[in-house]
Amino acid sequence: MELEIRDLLSRCKSGDRQAMDLLYQRYRPQLLLVCKNYTSEKSVAEDLLHDAFVVIFTSLDKLKQVDALESWMTAIVKNVGYQYCLKSEKEKTALHQMALENKQSLEVEQSLDYDQLQSLVSLLPLGYQQVFRLSVFEGLSHQEISQLLGIAPHSSSSQLYVLTAAFPPSRTFISAIIS
Length: 179
What we know:
- With 179 residues, this protein is mainly alpha-helical.
- It contains 9 helices and no strands.
- The model is unreliable at 175-179 (pLDDT under 50).
């Protein structure tokens, strides 16, 4: 078996797409389970696995022992998952901080007008801006947004949910626009 893996890795290193697919299919199920430890969204777990395999395929020369392949790949997947969690936490923290700052400057009872909301939206990370504008201002469905931006429909709806939770004064305004 080690000879078979050694040959497969050698073919992967030389850019053999069929060998890469074989390696991917062979380890996909168990590595996907590792990815699911970092997210409850299946599409995000698939993206994490894809990102991990990009690292794996570009780093095969760094693998010292063929018999450690599985643990080496698992370590890469865990690192990709950890980096995802750090990035997600930073985005949540940034959104939370923005919400706190806006809460201090706006009365909770006051509803936002269009210009104020536009101003707040321009402070968001680009992905959140796009989803918000397409959903709230353009009136597109999450399915349409996902097709336009190349993301999962659930990603669109969860980003909009995070925004409405982060900016309570905007809920009334958003509800009025969406209705």
